[in-house]
Amino acid sequence: MATVLAQPSSTHTPSLARRFTEIRNTTVGITEGLTAEDQMVQSMPDASPTKWHLAHTTWFFETFILEPYGDGYKPFDPRFRHLFNSYYKQLGSHPLRGTRGLMSRPTLPQVHAYRAHVDNALLAILEHAQEEVLKRVELGLHHEQQHQELLLTDLKHALWSNPLRPEPSTEMTDATAPSAMRWTEVDGGIHLIGHRGEGFAFDNESPQHQVLLQPFRIASRDVTNAEYLEFIEDGGYRRPELWLSDGWDTVSAQGWNAPLYWERCDDGGWWQFVRQGRKKVHPAEPVCHVSYFEADAYARWRGARLPSEQEWEVTAVRMPSSGTFLEDRIFHPQPAQGEGNQQMFGDVWVWTSSPYIAYPGFRPAAGFLGEYNGKFMCNQLVLRGGSCVTPRSHIRPTYRNFFPPHARWQFTGLRLAQ
Amino acid sequence: MATVLAQPSSTHTPSLARRFTEIRNTTVGITEGLTAEDQMVQSMPDASPTKWHLAHTTWFFETFILEPYGDGYKPFDPRFRHLFNSYYKQLGSHPLRGTRGLMSRPTLPQVHAYRAHVDNALLAILEHAQEEVLKRVELGLHHEQQHQELLLTDLKHALWSNPLRPEPSTEMTDATAPSAMRWTEVDGGIHLIGHRGEGFAFDNESPQHQVLLQPFRIASRDVTNAEYLEFIEDGGYRRPELWLSDGWDTVSAQGWNAPLYWERCDDGGWWQFVRQGRKKVHPAEPVCHVSYFEADAYARWRGARLPSEQEWEVTAVRMPSSGTFLEDRIFHPQPAQGEGNQQMFGDVWVWTSSPYIAYPGFRPAAGFLGEYNGKFMCNQLVLRGGSCVTPRSHIRPTYRNFFPPHARWQFTGLRLAQ
Amino acid sequence: MATVLAQPSSTHTPSLARRFTEIRNTTVGITEGLTAEDQMVQSMPDASPTKWHLAHTTWFFETFILEPYGDGYKPFDPRFRHLFNSYYKQLGSHPLRGTRGLMSRPTLPQVHAYRAHVDNALLAILEHAQEEVLKRVELGLHHEQQHQELLLTDLKHALWSNPLRPEPSTEMTDATAPSAMRWTEVDGGIHLIGHRGEGFAFDNESPQHQVLLQPFRIASRDVTNAEYLEFIEDGGYRRPELWLSDGWDTVSAQGWNAPLYWERCDDGGWWQFVRQGRKKVHPAEPVCHVSYFEADAYARWRGARLPSEQEWEVTAVRMPSSGTFLEDRIFHPQPAQGEGNQQMFGDVWVWTSSPYIAYPGFRPAAGFLGEYNGKFMCNQLVLRGGSCVTPRSHIRPTYRNFFPPHARWQFTGLRLAQ
Amino acid sequence: MATVLAQPSSTHTPSLARRFTEIRNTTVGITEGLTAEDQMVQSMPDASPTKWHLAHTTWFFETFILEPYGDGYKPFDPRFRHLFNSYYKQLGSHPLRGTRGLMSRPTLPQVHAYRAHVDNALLAILEHAQEEVLKRVELGLHHEQQHQELLLTDLKHALWSNPLRPEPSTEMTDATAPSAMRWTEVDGGIHLIGHRGEGFAFDNESPQHQVLLQPFRIASRDVTNAEYLEFIEDGGYRRPELWLSDGWDTVSAQGWNAPLYWERCDDGGWWQFVRQGRKKVHPAEPVCHVSYFEADAYARWRGARLPSEQEWEVTAVRMPSSGTFLEDRIFHPQPAQGEGNQQMFGDVWVWTSSPYIAYPGFRPAAGFLGEYNGKFMCNQLVLRGGSCVTPRSHIRPTYRNFFPPHARWQFTGLRLAQ
Q1: Is residue A178 situated within a structural domain?
Q2: Which domain holds residue D242?
Q3: Which residues of A touch D (CB under 8 A)?
Q4: Model pTM?
Q5: Is the backbone of residue B194 left (phi > 0), alpha (psi -120 to 50) or beta?
Q6: CB contact under 8 A, B375 and C245
Q7: Is the distance from CB of C299 to CB of C414 less than 8 angstroms?
Q8: Which residues of C touch D39 (CB under 8 A)?
Q9: What are the pLDDT digits (tens) for A255-271?
Q10: ipTM reported for the complex, 2 dp
């Protein structure tokens, strides 16, 4: 496990217990107002029910910490070991991903009891925990924060999939007008990429290493809905020469003609579905819920390209950056405004042009924790920055998110480079 | 609509109101003990969630009676007209069948409120209802009874699909030993088939008509588990010459080697899943959850055949018949024992050799109610008799149930003929 | 095998040899003008390449006659036993049906050599053949005639599937104007159905048996293109209430809006593809290449229905009947014109309302020949009469052809009843 | 187009005509001995028929040179423009890829006539051709060489897919014993990658650019069959922890347990299918027909990894390298033996760890030729080196071949790095 955490710190035990409680409570907090039925929907195989997220994050602590290190720990229900395993092959079999919506049992109250059982046991051993346990708890908390975002993302899709979607909310505030887009010039040369070792990072952010970049230009902010609408109106979804071959096949097969969750109003404008209902597409907000295929086609149509993940990271690390956190604001109630490159963090994940592969010298963790990241390094693209549903403490410049190029139910947008 | 009900009776208004209340309450009664989550599972596209059955049966009364005849009736929620339409094309579109499990909303309490709203409105107009309304209420009640059986059948499949299946119950009583199977000889000649016109019947049971039958022999009772096990042990599932071509393709593709819900015990015997848990396969009980393909192959292996629906009906009408109602007994708490042909009613539906087609002179009802039966007359086989989850008052000798030949999640068995 | 042939005749050995040679030559004759490439196309899994038909019909004689009865017979190539088995499970495995188009080897000349090898061996043993051999040769010849029709039917589909379709032929003669459609009244009562035992018949045409029919009316001729066009123009393909449920699903999924092989001309009229090219849809010709779903919907739209197979047979046997043999005329160069019910034979196969099931008392032949007919008695409908590509000597009033309800690449049309 | 060819040379007109004739003749030469039927097989959607390759390469010259530049050129058949378009969307529609095996027409002789027609017209204009035409001819010849390899690769798969596979050849010579594998150390630092501009290169090999590499070690030769067998025997195909997640899904779904074309002998050894028949797997030959998933899993099992494309190229350019050209030797009759890194060229394509993306500053060619390479830059991995069926003059150190990670019908192997 040591290789997963770049620099473990053994002195933060008290704050770890406090953070454990806070983060675990946050997860439950974002399910407030949802019925047990809402929390059971699996609207597509890629998405998971809310209840499953609640249980799986608990399973992580039970399986990787309480079972090996919790002296005399008695599992809440031995069958959960199999039931809430997501994909760890070395732990044995797991249910087919697409059947998570069939689990009426355990019930939601039972899952909450499971959470309490594990939380109590974990807090008990945390007081006198050895180094390895602390590291694993830290990892488990970051794992839980990932699932907080996934939970919100999957829930949005679940509510949208129901013919009885939430009613429109009229209280939504408008986004402020975007600043004009400027190009930021960045010099070429040798840059340092990857996590430097202070604080937590996933194994895939290491080792830190040098890369040689050409000089490049990167946009001062993300592409807006208004800009993306020009692409739509110019026939962008009907012109094969703008698309990757796989992208065009997807557009044709799926009948895409706008980002996910958009639909035309009667007056010719566009609505978009948000978790609380629907609202008019605001021209100043960053475009969201586009796939890599769409991001790439848009950039080609503009005569630009997507930045590589290295270009994005160099920009984010070296420049004063801020986020405006427009749509959802679950984790970002006070949008930061500032100079510099806007929206590097916390509005939308931006697709980079970089396939998700290992950094030079990367070695996954030993044992089953090695299945966390490395085994997905194929047919995925790196996303950077974090979105409005990413917990703020979970965002950092070296963070590497990844999804396949057709995915668009995540909060994904783009930024141009040249 | 007049053609749907063979002989409407305008004098039973009081009893109709009482029966309406009874049958509606029965439906809710059989969902007792189930959580809202249990009632939302759709384990395969052919099956529907319990909550959907509760809503759809209500939709039937609202759409076909309250909307056209309920003076000033205000729909509970206008969107339900679309949402809980099962397949009536003339009523406009309906959600894809396979997405019924995504409907976290309306919630279960909302569906119960919907039921109460419709029940009250319907009872109010029933007092002074015209003939056509009475007929439609009668039809709606039989429709509801059909869904009581489907609800129990689908629920069994839902609970079985969950890795956390109900725990075995140890209280189950054994079936009594079966009588020896005898052949009943029936003379050939002209027989009368179909509903004679007293009491309710569906349109597909009419018109009553004459058929010319060859002399035949029919078994005195259904095929038992013990008899079916001989077929399994003789390699029945591995011998293509015993099967219809489509049947063999299904066996091969699905890997069938026993009835649905059966699994081998460690001691070489067999368990079967029942709604309350699992129990040993009892040799004396009628075999259940076999497809037409399996029923047909078994009969061929025995050197016999399945009866036609006419042969079955002639036997059931003319001979003293009884049911033993073994497994579930929801609707049949006191198994009737008697002479004559056992198990004609209320144990398992028996597959007949008859494809489901129209009787000579059949005309479906005018308007959307004509979509009730006739449009399914293709690629289905007729089943007769009713099962242990068929409401007793819903069973009659002329009743024609129908399913495609591969279906086996219904309570379906077989009886031999020669 | 005895049960397959209703009444074998042991005295026609000389004519059998002559007929054998004639029928085998006819098969090769209808492939004249086709390249080896044309003869290798498999345009869909349901259709087979011409070369495969040439080989499979030969395999039938080799497998069922020469191997068991050809004393000292040496197979042309032992691997062909597996290679050209169509579906006889008792003979072991066979290649997946959809891969027949991959068999570049054996080459066409090798298949012709295979035919010559088998023909010579078979003629040699025919001189002193025992009864069983004669019966099997007879069966093999009828099997070959079936494949002559399938070959032409599949070839039409293959040529149509090629973007370079044959050029239009301008020499096609028009059909004569159809007579007005009249209704023929037929009395009810007990009728005799099935093959009486003189001459060859397949096992599924026996045993002859009595049926009780209601009085009915049947059209004097098949439905014409002009009549079917009225259905199209009345929105027949867009009105779900006219269709069986499975039929409507098929129409929606496949985008059907006319019979197979039809396409609209620029002037709003319709072309149809025929094997030699394409020609204008002629209003007087019987409509062809419609599925059972379309035939059934058309009849419903007309306020009529399809005849049962018994009704059709009673009409064909008792009334003077004739065919006009319009489109293709491969086997019917001189269209017979006459009084009585036209087109009972040799224009298009007509869909009946009868699912394909066993006659009362039917027993399939023992051994692998029992796989010929009986195992397909599920999810198929009976067709009667024979088409313009059915060899004339292969047509008889009791013949039961069968296809699933969505099939329409066969030469299939319809006739109304009431 | 200018950007496609890094450095066009206008002075080699005579040799271009000669090379044109040679390369065009080579294509036809490798189809000798194949029947028209062999040349029509499409054994899977990814593979194309031989006849299609013959026509499509001709279509390239006709469409991109003769139509725009061949003054007064009359197309051989205007329908071919659509028919033999592979994927160029800007040229309009094209037939579905999976239907190429249905084209019995045009016949093989017609395709040969098409080739002659285009060859004559092209040679005629070549004498006084402008610069752009010369560049496009050069591109067309490299395109044709690519298809020579694809033709041989697809043909192997087609012959293997036929139950009547070619008989084993006994004349095959054994490979010589491999040298022991050594690690070659390469220094880190800044290296130059990409085509320098002399001679032909595809657009995706440019622009030449600097990269910063870490020090690395690379194997002196490819992984052999003997080495790969150790992986198989160690349960490599049954251990999920060795595989990428998508790889394991593929192994499970496809039932892979060895490279493509391998099958176990009765004595426990292994056969492999080669185009002329089958032969024993030779321990000293490089393993071939493995997917990226298998190459990656093998490397992980060995405690090593695959080289990046940059590492491979740096090794190939700077070190004395040679190929041994083991299996097929169509284009490499005299295997070169030498010191240095063996098998860099001409034995098997080696999978690199590099996803196929654009080089920094890459711009695809303008117009439809821009569809040649760039639009496939997604979900593919780079392969380097060329195989025994790659034309020798088509091999160069900067060449970037690419296939998706599950593909294994190409001649693909691997080399280890650390």
Answers
A1: no
A2: 183-413
A3: 87, 89-90, 190, 209-212, 214, 240-241, 243-248, 292-293, 353-355, 357-358, 360-361, 370-371, 375-379, 405
A4: 0.91
A5: left
A6: yes
A7: yes
A8: 104
A9: 999 999 999 988 888 99
A10: 0.91
